[in-house]
Every structure is written in C-alpha cells, then in structure tokens.
C-alpha cells in the first residue's frame, strides 16, 4: 500500500474558502485554489492543479457546504478527491484558540465545541472556521482533521506582556488578554530565517514583521514567542491595510459620546475604514507607493504613519529582547515593498540595524539577507508559507498519533 502523504489545508473565511493540497514528501502543491463570494450572486471557484489547466467556475455557492462540495468535485476530477487513499489528513486554519489550544489539535466534537465557545473573542473568524471543519468532517468522517491555531505560537508570551492593565476580575470574566494572531506565519518565518542564517533557532533573538493586509510584529527568543503586537483581537499594533492598529481607547468613548457614532459604526471604522485606506483611500501598498511617488500628500502621510509605527515597534521589541540577531520582513508588503523595509530601518544604525540599498532592491521569491556584511543585525526577507506550516503540523500530529 502506498503511504498517505497528502494534506489538504483549508482556510475558511467569512465568505471564502482557500485550499491547498500539499504533498509532504517534498512540500509541493498537488492542487490549490479558492472559492470566493460565498452566499453572493457572483460566486467564483478558481482551481489550479499542479498538472493541467487552471479552471474557473462562475456560479452561486449558497453556503460553505456547497463551496466545499464543489472543491471536492474539482479535486476528484484530478483524481485527488477527498476519498483518495493518498490523503493523510485535513489541516484547518483556526484563528482563535484562546488559552486552551497552544498546539495543533486533533479535532473531535469536544474540540469543535471549545472553538465555538471562543466565538465571543473572535466573532469574525471562528464561526467560518467551524463551518469549514463541520463540512469537511461530514465529507470525510474517518479522516484525521487537525486544527492549527493562529494564536498558538503566541501562547508562550509571558504574563507581563499578555496582561492588559485593567481590572483583573473583569479581564478574567471576559477572557481579556493578549492572544496575538498570525502565529503560524511568525513560527514558520522565524524558523526559516534561522535556516537562512545557518543558526539554531535556540540561539537567536529575532523581530519578525508580518506585513500583509493585516500586519503584526513579534519578538522571538530562542524559537519562542515572547511578545506580539496583536492583542485580544487582530486590531491592535501596527498600521494595517484597513485597520488602525494602536489607538487611544479613549477615542471610542469620544466618537460615541461626542460624535454620536454607534459601537458597530466605530467597530467598522477601526477595522475596515482605517489604516492605509482611512488615511489615503487605498489599502494596497503598491498604490500608496505609486501615489506618494507622484507627490500625493495623503499617500505620503499614510506611508509615513505606517513606517513610523513599524520603526517604533522595532525599537520597543529591541528593548524587550535586549539583544537582537535578526529583523525579518515577511508577507505581501514585507516581501515586496523595498521602500517600506528601507524606511522602517532608517535611523536604526545605532542599534546595529542597517539595510543595504542594492540588496534591498533585488526582487526575488527566495529568503534573502538585505543587510550589509558589516551589519551587526541580520536584516532578512523571508517569504511566509502558512499553508505549508499548517500541513507540516497536521501531518506531524497524525504521524505521532499512529
Ligand atoms: P498578504 O496579506 O500577505 O497577501 O499581503 C497583501 C498586501 O501586500 C497587499 O494589500 C499589498 O498592499 C501588498 N503587496 C503585494 N505586492 C506588493 C508589492 N509588489 N509592493 C508593495 N506592496 C505589495
């Protein structure tokens, strides 16, 4: 019998499902795709098999069950269906694992119930993740399914960094603490950076900057996360595409009492109409850079606020770590926007953080150093791969269990 080496990674969002079928023999993708606009009239499924043409289906996907059934059909058409004996496990990205889940977890009814209990602290994400899990379990009840939590890598953040200075009873009652997100990416990237440096992660102190549409920083010491910028929710910390990041909590009372905005309106403002889009109307850093380059003042301010916050966090995390061996940029902005990396590190040479302009300008999909040879701190660009990390963790868990 051939060994099962495929892992299907599912990332179910509120109106989308992304998937990758990964062969753990070499990390290659047997297929990948997404279904978007689930529940809307203009749904779309895009399926890209490793062998063969990319296929697009334009139709209504009434709900996640229909969307996942369609994904299963596409995979089956490539002889990679959910019934395939090559499939070892399904790995689910789950955004919030609370304090209970600090590691990848084999899913059973009780685990689903606990993920459901965490909905109040992750109302935008956990419900969709649960639907993805339930539909996948219904399609393949016999197959091991593993939840990999965005919060898990941050479960090691010490109490002093995880505790908000508010009334303790209230905090405990409502599970208010720093959880952090993007953990799977921070974990993958910190290990990949250690490999790039040819060093053991146990020896290294790093600042990892995940700069995508959402953005977060983490301080990683000896392979363990000791501080991270997102908090109870993914709103805290860095300036993001549409989220404000850090802001005085007092502005919520001000906008409510003086401005007359409802709590839902303020939620919408801070999560969807702030950050880069709030400052200049564009949430895509490519547009911000293009417009700033043409002398657009709003885009320039958005860029300045974005990189000021980043530089501030690099300094703060330097203080948290005491010694820094590497600053690592990742995700859409971090991997591609050389001007952001340059500006974020500008003026930090006293800390040993420098960027070589020529190395920084190189466009590449590979992990690479962008600091000069004499730099005391390695500055690196490391492409993230959350799906591969989820697949690895799911596969390792299933194999340990056998
Ligand atoms: P992610 O969430 O990691 O997929 O990152 C998405 C973001 O990356 C987009 O919103 C863009 O702002 C940014 N991005 C992607 N490519 C580039 C690029 N070439 N230059 C600047 N920003 C980019």
From TrEMBL:
Tell me the active site. 150 (proton donor/acceptor)
Annotated GO MF terms: kinase activity
Q: Keywords, A to Z?
A: ATP-binding, Cytoplasm, Kinase, Magnesium, Metal-binding, Nucleotide-binding, Transferase
Asked if Lyase is a keyword of the record, the answer is: no
- First-level EC class: transferase
User: Which residues does substrate bind?
Assistant: 93
Binding of Mg(2+) occurs at 11, 386
Per UniProt, ATP binds at 18, 210-214, 284-286, 332-336
The UniProt entry, under InterPro entries, shows: Ac/propionate_kinase, Aliphatic_acid_kin_short-chain, Aliphatic_acid_kinase_CS, ATPase_NBD
Q: Where is this site: Transition state stabilizer?
A: 182, 243
Q: Where in the cell is it found?
A: Cytoplasm
Family, similarity comment: Belongs to the acetokinase family.
Q: Give the record's subunit note.
A: Homodimer.
Function in brief: Catalyzes the formation of acetyl phosphate from acetate and ATP. Can also catalyze the reverse reaction.
What is this protein's name?
Acetate kinase
Q: Say which species the protein is native to.
A: Kitasatospora arboriphila
């Amino acid at each position: 019998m051939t060994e099962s080496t495929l892992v299907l990674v599912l990332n179910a969002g509120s109106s989308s499902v992304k998937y990758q079928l990964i062969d753990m023999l070499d990390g290659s993708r047997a297929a990948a795709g997404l279904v978007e606009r689930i529940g809307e009239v203009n749904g779309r499924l895009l399926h890209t098999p490793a062998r063969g043409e990319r296929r697009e289906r334009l139709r209504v996907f009434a709900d996640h069950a229909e969307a996942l059934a369609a994904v299963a059909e596409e995979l089956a058409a490539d002889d990679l269906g959910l019934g395939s004996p090559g499939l070892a496990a399904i790995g689910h990205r789950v955004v919030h694992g609370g304090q209970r889940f600090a590691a990848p977890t084999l899913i059973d009814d009780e685990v689903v119930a606990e993920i459901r209990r965490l909905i109040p602290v992750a109302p935008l994400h956990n419900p969709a993740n649960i639907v993805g899990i339930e539909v996948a379990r219904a399609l393949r009840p016999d197959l091991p399914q593993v939840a990999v939590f965005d919060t898990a890598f941050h479960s090691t953040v010490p109490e002093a960094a995880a505790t908000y200075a508010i009334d303790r009873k209230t905090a405990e009652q409502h599970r208010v603490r720093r959880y952090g997100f993007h953990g799977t990416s921070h974990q993958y990237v910190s290990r990949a950076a250690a490999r790039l440096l040819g060093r053991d992660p146990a020896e290294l102190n790093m600042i990892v900057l995940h700069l995508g549409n959402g953005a977060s920083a983490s301080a990683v010491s000896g392979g363990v996360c000791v501080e991270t910028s997102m908090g109870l929710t993914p709103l805290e910390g860095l300036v993001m595409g549409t989220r404000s990041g850090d802001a005085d909590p007092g502005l919520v009372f001000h906008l409510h009492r003086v401005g007359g905005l409802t709590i839902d309106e303020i939620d919408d403002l801070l999560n969807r109409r702030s950050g880069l889009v709030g400052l200049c109307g564009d949430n895509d850093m490519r547009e911000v850079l293009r417009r700033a380059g043409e002398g657009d003042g709003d885009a320039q301010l958005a860029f300045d606020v974005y990189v000021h916050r980043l530089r501030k966090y690099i300094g703060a995390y330097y203080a948290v770590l005491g010694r820094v061996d590497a600053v690592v940029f990742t995700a859409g902005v971090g991997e591609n926007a050389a001007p952001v990396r340059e500006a974020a590190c500008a003026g930090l040479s006293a800390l040993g953080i420098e960027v070589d302009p020529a190395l920084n300008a190189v466009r590449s999909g590979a992990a690479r150093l962008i600091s000069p040879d004499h730099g005391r701190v390695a500055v690196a660009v490391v492409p993230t791969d959350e799906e591969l990390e989820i697949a690895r963790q799911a596969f390792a868990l299933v194999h340990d269990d056998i």
